[in-house]
Amino acid sequence: MVVRCEEVWREISNYLEGEIDPILRTAMEEHFRECERCAAVLEGTRNVIELYGDERMSEAPLGFSHRLRRRLQENMVPRRRTFLGWMVAAAATALVAGSIELAHSSVFGRPAPRSEHAQPGKGVPPDMMVVVATEGKTFHVRGCPFIHDKARLQTITAREAMREGYTPCVRCMKKYLSS
Amino acid sequence: MPEEVSVLGSPAAQFKEEALIRRIKGGERDLFYELIRPYERRVFAAALAILRNEADAEDAAQEAMLKAFKHIDQFRAESRFSTWLIQITVNEARMRRRKDHANIMEPIVDQQDEEGNYTPRDFADWREIPLETLERKEVRQKLAAALASLGEKYREVFVLRDMQHLSIEDTAKALGISTASVKTRLLRARLMLRDLLAPGLGGSWSTSASFEKGVKPW
């Protein structure tokens, strides 16, 4: 079976998906060996799929999870509550202090620090470039050995990091900690 | 609290998800965040594919997840939760897009005949773009710009299938189109992107003054 270039282009996507009958597959393999142009189209298409499929291409903006959670929490609160109801709710919330959830609560103003153990920074230059991991709690200088999730780092200013609730790393940002 | 690690879509994850949905329907509403957490990025990406603007996409994604929360009682276990969530997101984003006047600015490529054969433009030997270059923000931006220049119907399919790794069937369900259309549009999207990323043809790469015509930026 011999296939023409036009047929190869039409089937190249199915070929890469593995959804193609064996006879056509063999014919196309043969064609790619002989036709440089179609081989280039195949390699390029494969490369496109690989590049865009990488998770670095699908990043949500910094603070996305945090803001989403806040919006959901705001909407999960029953709309009409009496003053007494609010007091009871506030007291109940205080009782569960210690839970990490508290750090994300919108009840106590924003931005809430992402970790309950965090110390706020003092005098961190706001324009200093720092790195954060999307799901992390602290910000670091690039290359700090105490960064946990090295795969998902973003570089931002210290001002943005603090606005998103990140707190300074106790090691690399030691000189900026208040105590 | 140590986080349980279960692979997305595995039977264990599926089981855990079904249990979560039952508890949420039963009144434990605050578990909803746990339910949607694995899909956050996918929801954002789907909204971005349609709206092409991060701020609008974030707002649409939040709204979609709120709608899913409010209508969780209507969710039926015969479909997958992730597909249902993406469907809501696609509807939300499309609705906003219709309201938006920028609508008129849909790129010309969108008017191409979907059924017609697509002829690749650049036959130069493809020089591979190595994965490591994705570390560089400008490379990611170039790739994103190329994707943004495709018509909506190609972008939607490409993002759900090739970037968010939904199956062909789930992509079709989420977008309300046939699997045959998914396949045709996917082919077109992939070939168009390949053309856009190939050097020296007036694609998005060569419009930047920072590198010379025909020279790749890596």
Structure description:
The complex is a heterodimer of chains A (179) and B (218). Chain A has 179 residues and is of the alpha+beta class. Helices cover 45% and strands 8% of the residues of chain A. Chain A has a four-stranded mixed β-sheet. Chain B is mostly helical. The N terminus and C terminus of chain B are likely disordered. At the A-B interface, α1, α3 and α4 of A face α3, α4, α6, α7 and α9 of B.
How would you summarize this macromolecular structure in one to three sentences?
The complex is a heterodimer of chains A (179) and B (218). With 179 residues, chain A is an alpha+beta fold.
List its traits:
heterodimer; A: 179 residues; alpha+beta; 7 helices; B: 218 residues; mainly alpha; 9 helices; elongated; disordered N terminus; disordered C terminus
- How large a portion of the residues of chain B is in β-strands, by DSSP E? under 5%
Report, as a whole number of angstroms, the end-to-end distance of chain A: 78 Å
Question: What's the order of the H and E elements of chain B?
Answer: HHHHHHHHH
Tell me the fraction of residues in β-strands of chain A, as a range: 5-15%
Helix content of chain B: 40-55%
Q: What topology does this entry show?
A:
The complex is a heterodimer of chains A (179) and B (218).
Chain A: H1 5-17, H2 22-34, H3 36-53, H4 64-76, H5 83-95, H6 101-104, E1 129-133, E2 138-140, E3 153-157, H7 158-163, E4 167-168
Parallel strand pairs in A: 2-4
Antiparallel strand pairs in A: 1-2, 1-3
Helix pairs in contact in A: 1-3, 2-3
Chain B: H1 11-25, H2 32-36, H3 40-51, H4 54-70, H5 81-99, H6 137-148, H7 152-163, H8 168-175, H9 179-197
Helix pairs in contact in B: 3-4, 3-5, 3-7, 4-5, 5-8, 7-8, 7-9, 8-9
